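Structure tokens please, single chain.
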Amino acid sequence: MSDLLTAALAHARRGWHVFPLRPDDKRPAFPDHPADDCAGRDPRCRAAGHHLGWEPRATTDPDRIRRAWAARPYGIGLACGPSRLVVVDLDTPKDGTTGPTGLDTIAELAAAHAAVIEPTYTVTTGRGGTHLYYRHPDDGPDLRNTAGTLGPLVDTRANGGYVVAAGSTVGGRLYVVDLDTDTAPLSGWLTARLAPAPLPPQRPVVVSLPSDRSGAYVRAAVAREVDRVATAPAGERNRALYIAGVALGQLVAGGALTEDDAQNALEQAGVTSGLRTAEAYRTVRSGLAAGSKRPRTVAA
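Here you go.
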């Protein structure tokens, strides 16, 4: 049995959902096409009746894992959402520069909250960073990926995100377990800082306009949200895309905009801003679903 297969099975025994990465790479091995290029030829997409990305393909089934890793020396991706994990990614300065690290940032935050960093399952990344694995809170909102929300050189991966798991290599550099223990629950102060902003009170909104202006109102709303994504700084583009999806999801739910038009406009904006197609697709879908809970009707 290969070391990668052994590691993948060990992660699955913890209840973590794994999927193959391209050998010695961070990118998923399957599917080999983005959502907007899905023609249904992939057997799993065809069976599902729609594009099936890496997250729903992730599994804890040992038979499926053995079949996959018997084929090639795939790296191991770990889907955080299905695994109910929040992984705090503590990076180090790039290009040989010196300065505070992500570990310094999180330590300062903990001290400011009179808290300590609880021991938890920990991985040292190929480039010398640190992944702290925590259990996603059972109560409260679903946490999503963040970039810089907690401070410099600190990102998080949760629902909609994945990490390279221990036992894998990227660019010839091995990801190694630094502390092999149970995952600790995500602390309350971290949960509060990572929680998405709540939606406004859930009541219908009606915008009354003359018939000749209603279309202009919707077009302006779409343009405004596309611009929100286009002007978002690096590290905040996924979050901006989600917020834009919520806004247009309200108009879709109110009947002023078709879901296809909203999806296409925002997904294109996300990809143009630098997001991967699959990431943009998932984020827009999630934002539209959240926005649909508070319909905004444009009445002539």
